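Entry type: protein chain
Record version: 2
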Amino acid sequence: MNSEISFIKSIKFKLAIWYSTLLFIFSIGFVFILNIIAVKYIENQPAFPQPVGMFRRGAIVREITETERLLLHEARMKDLENFRELSFYSIIPIVLLSFVGGYVIADRNLSPLEKLNAEMRRRNVGDLSTSIEFKDRGDEISELMNSFNAMSERIHRTFESQKEFVENVSHEIKTPLAIIQANLDSALEDKKISRDELEDILNESKKSVKTMNHLTEDLLLLSVLQHDIAKEKVSIKDILDSCASDVKKIANGFEININSNGKDVMVYGNSMLLSRAISNILENAVKYSGGRIITVKVGSSDQKDVVISIADDGVGIPKEQRKKIFERFYRLDKGRSRKEGGRGLGLAITSEIIKNHGGSIKVVDSEKGAEFEIRLESA
């Protein structure tokens, strides 16, 4: 019973029914018109031509007698009746054949959808990266199959990214929690612990708590950046000056030069978030570049975008790692980053902030050190 209901509700059955119905309507209309033409033909009064002479091209037309007219009319009416029966009865096999043919055609063209349905029922998270193979005919169904494969690949990357994200977060939290746990156990078990030792344990635990707080704040910020944020017309020069002023406090002799060519360019954005994005780059240059000079330039592109260049004279970033540095929890030097308190989220946050502002960020080739190029739409 379920298979019958499924067959009746299938798109193939509905398409075949609609096709047959339309053909039936068109056939009825065609037969009706033919019958009208036939009736008009019968109503005409016939006349018989009578040839005169063997080699005459013309002919003398005479009127037929009443008896001949009646016989001819009776014959035509009989032919009309036969024609009507033949035309109406021929509609039935035509409609049936059209239904079968329509169903076969629909079945052939909709077979990729059945394959897609079967794959959607069968698939799980583990094999989302595998594409469904099909013959691309350039039609709507082929476009649907392509879209499904693309969507499946995106979902796969999302699951993989979430999995990696959870693993990284767990790893980052595990270390400070282990330190706090060890310090608490040591303080509770050692009955003769001195005040200085207790103070060291508490300071170390406080440092671990601070690390987790920063990590939590960064993760919350990344979550917020997935949504639209409040924006207004802001000055890039003011943002750069503020960032340079804050970073100089930890610069330890670093020279930060800002060159805006005397122009105060404006963009639509969130000044606090843009300041965070640029400060992350400046702080990374101070902590990890190994150089002594940071040069910031502000210009514009042919598309009238605001272009911000931040370059240092340090060791630079290898080409094969220039895209990876914007991934969450990625570190060029894991040991050094942990020592400096890095969590591998700074540039990931910077990238998300710039993307949220409709801009782009990348590492470009430079003669020495690392150079970041930020592009934002001018206001």
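Comment: The longest strand covers residues 293-300.
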